[in-house]
From TrEMBL:
Descriptive protein name: GTPase Obg
Domain OBG-type G span(s) in chain numbering: 160-330
Keyword vocabulary terms for this entry: Cytoplasm, GTP-binding, Hydrolase, Magnesium, Metal-binding, Nucleotide-binding
One example GO MF annotation: GTPase activity
Assigned EC number: 3.6.5.-
Name of the gene encoding the protein in the UniProt record: obg
Length: 478
């Protein structure tokens, strides 16, 4: 028996960004050639792509851990590190991506539809890129950021226009085999079909797909038989077809009560009420079956169903059925909004990436949250004082210090940047006073400067602020 896997847990890891390089150009007779450390490369993304030649999630069941490659570190001589390679994971059409809590992240329909499941880390800037007029030779570089780690669940939902439902042995697979070129297994014992079969039907100018699911029995919603699990495959269909057996030998069954049972199970499953339904009375090649079909037809029609009498074995009534289904499918397609073809749910971003928040916690700790400050912390090599100073400047310019001050923080108070389980905590040393200029800047010592007249000092300060502003924009290309 082939294994059918329609739900897998997948652990994906994007590549880490390469570290930036801190290097100084050296050449004979030119002792101070300037910084020439290159940038680190970007880590590879993990990307899911719909590939119509893939039909199962089996590969991921066997190897559920996947990782894209890391970016390479930058090197001296202004050489950038190579970007990591994206890892492209082919998935079947109709794959739904969920997070661990069952929330839908993306619904991948249509060949080529892509979803970035884990984003690669950005490479760190090298010291060449960090050099500026006032920081001529930075002795540090930025670290590459770690790539995303995600635990996701993939679920397969067959993308079929028409779904056949019914008791075991009603002839669902037989119908698919005569309406399309598909050759599913057919046998005279219940639960022959263990996984959905899919066929393509051409009726006039309409081409549509038809799928069956394993047979349903009373109590399927409580897990009887193969249960209702497979009904997820009919969730996307536009038409439900009840295949009713007119020649069953089980004494307590007949087409009308069979229909009631299946409808009750569909109701238990939920979400299918709005789908149009059609009734097929199968096995009318058998004389008793034909009689029973004629007997129940008025009742079914009185309930509002369109009824088709067919024989899958004797190839009777098939053309009429397939054209009627084509018509309903065409109507459903016309009514569907265009963008339905590729549905991707983009997860809303938790934090607005331009801002940050400062909160005072019960134990007196000040917590800073925000995309930029947290990213800058990840980029900082805390063993390098200059790098730490650069971080302080960046935070300062974003206004973090000012907000800390407003929130009541004083020198020596604990400040955490990041979430509760992933934060850098330090004792705060303000470099800026409320309403005053910056006291000192990295790579300079203001005590060494010659005294300047007040007007000149004001001009210089303005020029520095302008430069800082420019630098800030320049250094945040992300
Ligand atoms: N006489 C007659 N027999 C049929 C007809 N359609 C199907 N059968 C027989 O009914 C039995 C079951 O057919 P399947 O197509 O496997 O039924 P199914 O609904 O797919 O059954 P499960 O996969 O078990 O749910 C087989 O022995 C078929 O040959 C028909 O129109 N006439
Ligand atoms: Mg079958």
């Amino acid at each position: 028996m082939t294994t059918f896997v329609d739900r897998v847990e997948l652990h994906v890891a994007a590549g880490n960004g390469g570290h930036g390089c801190a290097s100084v150009h050296r050449e004979k007779f030119k002792p101070l050639g300037g910084p020439d450390g290159g940038n680190g490369g970007r880590g590879g993304d993990v990307i899911l792509v719909v590939d119509q030649s893939v039909t199962t999630l089996l590969d991921y069941h066997h190897s559920p851990h996947r990782k894209a490659t890391n970016g390479k570190p930058g090197e001296g001589g202004n050489r950038s590190g190579k970007d990591g390679q994206d890892l492209v994971l082919p998935v079947p059409d109709g794959t739904v991506v969920l997070d661990r809590n069952g929330e839908v992240l993306a619904d991948l329909v249509g060949h080529g539809t892509r979803y970035v499941a884990a984003q690669g880390g950005r490479g760190g800037l090298g010291n060449a890129a960090l050099a500026s007029a006032r920081r001529k030779a930075p002795g540090f570089a930025l670290l590459g950021e770690p790539g995303d780690l995600q635990d996701i669940v993939l679920e397969l939902k067959t993308v079929a226009d028409v779904a056949l439902v019914g008791y075991p042995s009603a002839g669902k697979s037989s119908l698919i085999s005569v309406l399309s070129a598909a050759k599913p297994k057919i046998a005279d014992y219940p639960f022959t079909t263990l996984v959905p079969n899919l066929g393509v039907v051409t009726a006039g100018s309409t081409v549509y797909t038809i799928a069956d699911v394993p047979g349903l029995i009373p109590g399927a919603s409580q897990g009887k038989g193969l249960g209702l699990e497979f009904l997820r495959h009919v969730e996307r269909c536009s038409v439900l077809v009840h295949v009713l057996d007119t020649a069953t030998l089980e004494s307590q069954r007949d087409p009308l009560s069979d229909l009631d049972v299946i409808e009750e199970e569909l109701r238990q499953y939920g979400g299918l009420d709005d789908r149009p339904r059609v009734v097929v009375l199968n096995k009318t090649d058998i004389p008793d079956g034909k009689d029973l079909a004629d007997m129940v037809r008025p009742d079914l029609e009185a309930r509002g169903y369109r009824v088709f009498e067919v024989s899958a074995v004797a190839h009777q009534g098939l053309k009429e059925l397939s054209y009627a289904l084509a018509e309903i499918v065409a109507q459903a397609r016309a009514a569907k909004p265009k963008e339905e073809a590729t549905r991707i749910v983009i997860r809303p971003k938790a934090v607005d990436d331009s801002g940050f928040t400062v909160t005072r916690e019960e134990d007196g700790l000040y917590r800073v949250r925000g995309e930029k400050p947290e990213r800058w912390v990840r980029q900082t090599d805390f063993n390098n004082d200059e790098a730490v100073g650069y971080l302080a400047d960046r935070l300062n310019r974003l206004g973090v210090e000012e907000e800390l001050m407003k929130a009541g923080a004083r020198a020596g108070d604990g400040v955490a940047i990041g979430s509760e389980d992933n934060a850098v905590v330090f004792d705060w040393e303000p470099t800026m006073m409320a309403g005053a200029e910056m006291l000192g800047r990295r790579g300079e010592d203001h005590r060494l400067e010659a005294p300047r007249p007040a007007a000149q000092r004001r001009k210089d300060r303005q020029a520095e602020r302008d430069e800082a502003e420019r630098e800030y924009d320049e250094f945040d290309p992300f």
